[in-house]
Amino acid sequence: MRKAFASVIMILTAVLCVCIFFARRSRKPIGRNVAALIAALIPPMIGNLLIIMTQDHLVADIGSYMYFIGMDLIMFFMARFTIRYCNIERYKPLLYVIYLLLAADAIQLLINPVFNHAFDHEAIEFDGAVHWRLVPYMGQTFHRVVIYAVLAILLIRYTVMTVRSPRVDAERYFVILLAMIVTALWQTFYIFSRTPIDRSMIGLGVFGLLIFYFALYYRPVRLLNRMMAGIVGEMPEALFFFDTNGKCIWANEPGVSMTGILPGEFPAAKEALEKRFGDVDMEDEWTRRFVEGRGENARYFLLQRKPVQDRRTPVVGSFLRIRDDTEEQRKHARERFLATHDPLTGLYNREFLYEQIRHLLSSQPDRRWLIIFHNIKNFKIVNDVFGNEFGDHVLRRVAAWISEDMPEDTVYGRLAGDTFGVCMPADQFDEELIERALTGAVIRQDSFEYAVQIHLGIYEVVDPEMDVSVMFDRARLALSTIQDNYQKHVAWYGEEMRTDVIRRQQLSGQLTDAIAKQQIVPFLQPVTDRNGTVVGAEALVRWIHPERGLLSPAVFVPVFEENGMIAEMDRSMWRSACEILARWNRDHPELFLSVNISPKDFYFVDVSAEIRNLVKEFGLAPEKLRLEITETVMMTDEEKHLAVINELRSAGFLVEMDDFGSGYSSMNMLKDIPLDALKIDMKFLSRSSEETKTRRILQMIVGLAEDLGLVSVIEGVETEEQYRLLAGMGCRLFQGYYIARPMDVDSFEAFLEQRTGLHQ
Ligand code: C2E
Ligand code: CA
Ligand code: CA
C-alpha cells in the first residue's frame, strides 16, 4: 500500500518536473510563474513521502518541515501566480501582507526544534509497521490559519474574477477556482480525518498539472468561438461556409444581405451566389475578380475561396469570401488618373504619354509612325495680355482640337506648358487638312478673340527603340524651322536639321578664334545719292571660313543671336568699321559707314559706351558711323533702350531704322523712337503682287519720312526701273545690287576709284 502510493507520488513528481521544464521554456510571460508554482509543489510531496516511508523519528520530522514550509512556499508562489494570471498588479500591497504572514509562519515553524511549540510525531502501528503520526500544537494551528487565510484570499479573488469578468473570460478563472477548491477540500479532508496516508498529495500533484494546462495550454473554446464569431460578424466582407458536399451551412450578416436569403436559410445562398457571380463551386482554392455593370456604375468584387483544413481530415469544408472593393478600385482609378493625366486639359501628362508611345511602338514596330510636336506661338503673350484664365481656356481648346477625331492607334498628351505631343500612324496623317484647320484658327471666350498660331513639328520614327524624348526633340527641331512663319504650320524633320544643329554648335565654338584670326570681316555695300554718287556704305558681316568658304550672315547671325555671341561678333564689326573710317579720313573723308546693331546686343554690352569709346579711340566724327537698329529693339525694356538711343544721338551719331515696313508696329514706333533715317527694304514691299499698291505704299513711306524730317534710304534696289521710280518719289539714298553687291574692302575701294573715274 505504502509502496504503491509512493510510486504514484514519484511518477507525479517526475511528470511535474517535465512540466517545470516546459513551463520555463514557454514563450508566455506567465510560464516562469507556473514553473515556480509547480516546483513549490514538489517539497511537500517529497516531505509527505518521507513521513510515510520512514521508521525514523528524525526523518519524519524533516518530512514534516518540508511539508509545512513547502505549503508556505506553495501559497507564496500561488499568490504571485494569481497576480499575473488575473492581471491585477494593483493588488501588490495585499501581496506583501500575504508574504509577511507566510514568512512569519515559516519562521515559527523553523524554531519548533527549540520551543517544540508547533508539532511533534508519535509512533503508531499501521499496516504492520511504525507510522509517525503528527501531533499538532499551537504553532501548527497558526500555520493552518495562515494557509487557510491566504487560500481564502485567493479563492475570493478567483471568485470575484469569475463573476466580474465577461462570460467568455470567466471560464479561465473558473477552472483555476475549481482546481483550488477541489485540491483544498481533498487536503482538508485528510488533515482532519488523520488518515496515515495523505492521498491529498496526489491532489496537489494533479493541481500542478491543472495549473500547467490551464495557464499555458488551455484555450477556452467558448472564448475562441465567440471571438471568431464576433470578428466574422464584424467583417465587412461576405462570408459563406460550405460543408464537404458544397452545401452552404452558414453565412455572416453581409453574406445574408448580399444574397438576399432569409435568415437561417443558408443552403439557398449557393444558388443566389451562382446567379450573380457565376460558378462558385467549391472544389479548389482560388481567387478571382468580378466586375458587375459598366462605366461609372460598375461594382468590383474580389472572390476568394479556400478549403478549411483540420489536423485529422484534409478538407472539412470550405469558405468563400466576397469583398466589394468598388470604392478602393475607384480611388485607385482616380489616383491613377491624376498621376497620368494633366489636370488642366485632361490629356495624358508627359511621362504617361511617353510610356504609352513606347508601348504603341513596340507593339507594332513594323508600322510607320509619326511623332508630332505641337506648339502655340507666343503663348506667353496670351497669358500676359489676356490673363491666365484665358490662357487656360486656350490650352483647353487646343487640347480639345487635338483630341478631336483622332484615328485609332493614336496617343496624345500635353508635354508641358503650351506644347502637346501626338504619336499616330503615318498613313492617318493628312497634312492638307491640318494646314487648312490651322490657317486662321481663332479662339473666342466672351469678348476675347485670339488668332492662335499653332505649329507642328513632325518626326517620322525610324527606329522604334529610340528614346521617345529624343523623337520629340527632333520634332521640336523641325518646328523651330517654321516658328516665325505665319503661312506654314507643319514642318517635317530631316536629317539635315540635326546636322544643322551640330553645325551651329560648331560655329559657336569657333567664333572667338575666328575673330582673333580675322576670319570675321566686313563686306561693304555702297550707298549712293539720287545722282549715283557713293556717299557711304553698309558694313555687312562675312565669315571667311577656312573649311566652308565665305559664309553669309544668314548662316551664323541667327545662331549667335540665339546664344548671345552676337555681341562679341558685332563689337568686332564695329571696330573694323572704325578702322576703315579712320583710314578713309584721309582719302575719302566724305564717306560714312553704317553698322548693324542687333537687338540682342543691348542685353550683353553697353552699346552706347562701347560705340562712343570706339570713335574716341579712332578719333572719328560720330556722324561718320551710322547705326542701324531694328524696331524689335523696342519690344522689350523700351525705356532702357530708348535711353541708349537718345544718348547716342546726343553724342552725334545718326540712327537709322533698318528694315522699316517689315514689322507690324513700324508706324507706331516712329512717334516713340528718335531717329535720323528710315531704311526701307524693297523686298518687304515687293511681296505684294499688285504693283500699283506697292508703289502707293512706297510713296507714302517716303513722304512720311520727309514729313518727319528723316532721311529716306531705300535698299534692295535691283533694277534701273526701281531706281528711277524711287528717285522720282523723292527718295534720298539708294542701296542694292543695282548699284553693287556687298564686297570686301579692297574691292570697295577699287569700286570707288572706278566710280569717281566714271563721274569725272
Ligand atoms: P540687312 O541689315 O537688312 O542687310 C541688307 C541685306 O540685303 C544684306 O544681306 C545685303 O547683302 C542684302 N542686299 C543688298 N542689296 C540687295 C538687293 O538688291 N537684293 C537683294 N535680294 N538683297 C540685297 P546680308 O549681307 O546677307 O545680310 C543679311 C542680314 O544679316 C542683314 O540684313 C542683317 O540683318 C544681318 N547682318 C549682316 N551683317 C551684320 C552685322 O555685322 N551685325 C549684325 N548684327 N547683323 C548683320
Ligand atoms: Ca542693315
Ligand atoms: Ca535692312
CATH superfamily of the largest domain: EAL domain
Number of strands: 23
**Overall helicity:** 40-55%
Report the C-alpha radius of gyration, rounded.
54 Å
Number of domains: 4
Low-confidence stretches: none
Bound small molecules, deduplicated: ligand C2E, calcium ion
Q: Structural class given helices, strands, pairing? A: alpha/beta
Overall mean pLDDT stands at 89
Largest sheet data: 8 strands, mixed, barrel
What is the overall number of helices?
A: 28
At the third CATH level, what is the topology name of the largest domain?
Answer: TIM Barrel
| Anisotropy-based shape | elongated
Distance between the termini: 164 Å
Oligomer: single chain
Strand content: 15-25%
Give the strand line-up of the largest sheet. 15-16-18-19-20-21-22-23
Which CATH class of the largest domain is shown?
Answer: Alpha Beta
What does this protein look like?
- By secondary structure, the protein is of the alpha/beta class.
- It folds into four domains: 2-218, Rhopdopsin 7-helix transmembrane proteins (Up-down Bundle), CATH 1.20.1070; 231-330, 2-Layer Sandwich (Beta-Lactamase), CATH 3.30.450; 343-493, Reverse transcriptase/Diguanylate cyclase domain (Alpha-Beta Plaits), CATH 3.30.70; 504-752, EAL domain (TIM Barrel), CATH 3.20.20.
- It is 54% helix and 19% strand.
- The protein has an eight-stranded mixed β-barrel, surrounded by five helices. The protein has a five-stranded antiparallel sheet with strand order 4-3-7-6-5, with helices on both faces.
- The longest helix has 29 residues, at 57-85.
- The chain is elongated.
- The structure holds ligand C2E and calcium ion (2 copies).
- One calcium ion (CA) binds next to loops.
